[in-house]
Specification:
The chain is an alpha+beta fold. The chain has a domain of 94 residues: Fusion Protein Consisting Of Minor Coat Protein, Glycine Rich Linker, Tola, And A His Tag, Chain: A, Domain 2 (2-Layer Sandwich), CATH 3.30.1150.10. The protein is built from five helices and three strands. It has a three-stranded antiparallel beta sheet with strand order 2-1-3, covered by helices on one side.
Length: 216
């Protein structure tokens, strides 16, 4: 039975395919329609004008903003520590201040006591004896006498209480070396001179004596 059903199905399919092939092979009786021509009309539209360039108006400068000025108040200064200088610096500063103060002028010394008339007379007498003693030991050089060379030489010398001369030199020249040399030799020749009297307390005396050389 199955076999018979299968065969009948195949037969039906074969008949159907044959009918389709016959229909496709038969020519069509109506001719094909010709295509219609459609006229095309082109219209040239005017080109649009370019837009005018926009002129930008200058913008006004923005007004500066006036910001309020805020002044900051500085903080109060911190208290500085007090540094005390060392004692030696304080002492040095005190000394400088003391030295800068001009001291007051000391009072004038009291006037010397009036000289003892007896001592003044004794000193004058003594110097008179010294001059007379020197005059005794003066030698007028023969060469200067023959040429009539004249002048006065000043001689400085130091003597002690016993009259010994410890140094001499020419204090002022006479203008002639021969007379100056004769004056220095006179002092050396006259030593020792008369001793100082007790009324003179000096241990040494400096004298400047004139030695004259004149022809009388």
């Amino acid at each position: 039975m199955a076999m018979v059903r299968h065969l009948s199905t195949l037969a039906a399919l074969a008949l159907h395919a044959a009918g389709i092939g016959i229909a496709m092979s038969m020519p069509s009786s109506a001719p094909p329609a010709e295509p219609k021509e459609i006229p095309i009309t082109l219209t040239m539209a005017p080109l649009p004008e370019p837009p005018a360039p926009k002129v930008e108006e200058p913008k006004p400068d923005p007004k500066p903003e006036h910001k309020p000025v805020v002044r900051e108040t500085p903080p109060p200064p911190l208290p500085q520590p007090v540094i005390e200088p060392p004692p030696e610096v304080i002492a040095s500063a005190a000394t400088s201040v003391a030295e800068s103060v001009v001291p007051e002028a000391p009072p004038p010394p009291p006037p010397p006591p009036p000289p003892n008339p007896g001592a003044v007379k004794a000193k004058d007498d003594y110097f008179g004896r010294v001059l007379a003693w020197l005059e005794r030991h003066k030698r007028y050089p023969g060469e200067a006498r023959s040429k009539r060379t004249q002048g006065t030489a000043m001689v400085w010398f130091v003597m002690d209480r016993q009259g010994r001369v410890h140094g001499s030199k020419l204090h002022k020249t006479s203008g002639y070396p021969v007379l100056d040399e004769a004056a220095l030799k006179m002092v050396q020749r006259a030593s020792p001179l008369p001793a100082m009297p007790p009324e003179m307390p000096d241990q040494q005396v400096e004298l400047v004596v004139p030695v004259e050389f004149y022809i009388r």
